[in-house]
Amino acid sequence: MERPVRRLTASRFRTPHTAALALALVAGGFAAWAGQDWYQAAHDDRAAYAVQRDAALAAGEQAVQNLNTLDHRDVNQGLDLWEASTTGELHEQLSSGRADFADQVKEARTVSTARVLSGAVTELDDRAGRARLLVALRVTVEASDGTRTDKDSRMLGELTRTDGRWKLSALGQAPVGGTPAG
To answer: Are 82 and 66 in contact (CB under 8 A)?
Structure first.
């Protein structure tokens, strides 16, 4: 008795539907993996924290720059900007001493402009709405006779979030080198 010869097929897939099903399963698995990865990234607390840190840094740098920039020709606009950049006790100090300070700047006839060189948030309590930052800046003061003086300084600031915006609530010089803080 002769055995019938069985033909070997070159393709493992016997129907086109099998290939389509395999491709659909692979695509579905990839979509599920990508969706899960996206969901985790969207709901990660670290991303929200980083957004708040960046917002605090940008607002803090701008506020420090604002408080170190003033033109005797338009003192009121500069002081308005100071008050808009601050809150709390610092805001009260600036508001209460505004008239005397304006008179001093007008008499001295100086123009000071500040430029932030670098800055960093050193502490952030997002829940309490408080942050601290360190800012390095260069302040250029132009006297009435046209002479210019540049001074580099480091400032320590405290920020408070009020009405969804970060504002300076304290500002002071940072200790330099071996100088003790205090």
So the answer is: yes
Which tokens is 54 given? 């960046």
Amino acid at 100: D
Which residues lie closer than 8 Å to 56 by C-beta, 6 or more apart? 121, 124, 131, 133, 159, 161, 166
Phi, psi of 106 (to 5 degrees): -65, -40
Q: What's the farthest any 2 CA atoms get from each other in the chain?
A: 123
Q: Please, are residues 64 and 115 in contact by the beta-carbon 8 Å criterion?
A: no
Q: pTM for this one? A: 0.74
At 43-61, the pLDDT tens digits run 777 888 899 999 999 999 9
Residue 62 CA: distances (Å) to CA of 116, 119, 141: 8, 10, 18
> Which pLDDT score, from 0 to 100, does residue 19 have?
79
CA distance 140 to 148: 7
Paired tokens of 164:
């969804």
Low-confidence ranges of the chain (pLDDT < 70): 1, 4-14, 178-182
Do the Cβ atoms of 154 and 122 come closer than 8 Å? no
pLDDT at 163: 93
d(CA 67, CA 136): 13
**Considering only CA atoms, which of 131, 133, 149 is closest in space to residue 141?**
149
